[in-house]
Amino acid sequence: MTGKGEKKDERKNLRTLGMTLGGMLLLVVMLTGPALAEFKVDEKKGVVVDTATGLMWQRQTGNDNEALTWAQAVAYCKKLDLAGYDDWRLPSSDELQSIINYLSYDPAVDPRVFPDTASSGYWSSTTYEANSGYAWRIDFYYIGYVNISNKANHYYVRAVRSLP
Questions:
Q1: pTM of the predicted model, to two decimals?
Q2: Which of 44, 90, 119, 164 is deepest in the core (most CB within 10 A)?
């Protein structure tokens, strides 16, 4: 015969089991990272397509991993001919933030998608409104820290293009 205390214990045990299973699922997601469903990597062409945003990314850090001034980064992207496309550009701050993986750090991107990302700043095309001598950059060391920098400073570049 089951008394009130035993039913209460059963409910408590079921609740504990549910919390444990939910916690295990969260742990699995955290350990494996987010699903790569939005990213389609083309290793041959050196590009990544983000189906969620409709953007095509240069997979490797641009300019042979050499840091550039903002003007040099803009010029690099305009001259880039990659995967049969010549309409590359420097990404906006919002676009660059879209590739951050908040479950990763050092660098804060999925290394299976963007394998050589420096744990450092990357230029965006977004100029700081209060002072046009500055632009927004994303630092991929920890959680995609966003800050402004003088356009004369040297940071990395990763080109982007919009899909038709």
A1: 0.76
A2: 90
Instruction: With CA atoms as reference, report the closest residue to 159 among 46, 40, 36, 34.
Output: 46
SS3 85: strand
Beta bridge partners of 146: 138
CA distances from 39 to 31, 48, 89, 124, 132 (A): 18, 6, 19, 20, 33
First to last CA, the chain: 69
Same domain, 26 and 51: no
| Structure token digits, residue 81 | 């001919």
Domain with 18, as residue range(s), is 1-32
Cβ–Cβ < 8 Å for 160, 88: yes
Judge if 89 and 107 occupy the same domain.
Answer: yes
Task: Indicate which CATH number applies to the domain containing 121.
Answer: 3.10.100
pLDDT in tens, 51-96: 999 999 999 999 999 999 999 999 999 999 999 999 999 999 999 9
The number of folded domains in the chain is: 2
Which residue type sits at 113?
Answer: V
3 state SS of 56: strand
- Regarding whether 158 and 106 lie in a shared domain, the answer is yes
